[in-house]
Amino acid sequence: MNRREFIRTAIATTTLMAVGATGLFEVASKASTYQSSLQQQQQLPPVNAGTSQTSTTQLSQATTSGSQSSTISSQSSSASAPAGYVLVAELSALNGKTSAYFTHPTQGRSMLLSLNGAWKAFSAICTHRVCTLEFLSSEIYCPCHGATFSASNGSVTRGPAQATLGEYGVIVQNGGLYVSDSVIN
Fold it and tell me: What's the pLDDT tens digit per position in 26-85?
């Protein structure tokens, strides 16, 4: 290897090492941010639609940029839920709330949003990289990456995310709020 090739190789190697170190630093900082976010939000067990227990709901209060948010977990009997839906919460537990987190039985961490009195349900995980999303009055925001999503349909309104959030069907029936057991979009 001549001197010119050696210098090119040394520069390329140094550049790649710097990029790699920067990437590792970014991953480490995002991981610590994500872990602290998870510690602030209580992770509850998934909804179990196959149990015969009566419906129970647990709420954990949290305040996110001025909007009220809750974490919901419930168990429901399959006899009372509409076909293809699972009980997420009693409506009385959601009074005055603009958003609530719940664990979807097949999709994991998810969120409910109240938009002009109607409830919407979406995956609460950013489609760019794993990070729990937040509802900020009129949009869904990723605190890790800065991406935003429409609260009306889950579409990306600002990157780096490129994929639409998974949305679930919502039915309000007999004082309960039910979400579809699969993604509808």
Answer: 766 665 554 444 433 333 333 333 332 333 333 333 333 344 444 444 444 444 778 888
And the tokens for 18?
């710097």
- Residue 26: both structure tokens together: 């970014």
Question: What is the spatial distance between Cα 111 and Cα 92, in angstroms, rounded to a whole number?
Answer: 17
Q: CA-CA distances (angstroms) from residue 83 to 49, 52, 69, 104, 128?
A: 11, 16, 28, 16, 32
For residues 142-157, one letter each, b for 16 or more C-beta atoms within 10 angstroms of the residue's C-beta and e for the rest, the string is: bbbbebbbebeebebe
Hey, which CATH number is domain 48-183, 2.102.10.10, 3.50.50.60, 3.30.980.10, 1.10.1670.10? 2.102.10.10
> The dihedral of CA 38, 40, 96, 116: what is its sign?
negative
* Element holding 102 (H helix, E strand): strand 99-104
Residue 80 pairs in a beta bridge with none
Q: How many angstroms from the chain centroid is the CA of residue 50?
A: 24
Report which of 82, 93, 161 is spatially closest to residue 125, judged by C-alpha positions.
Answer: 161
Give the pLDDT mean for 149-175.
91
What is the amino acid identity at position 22? T
* Residue 24 or 167, more confident: 167
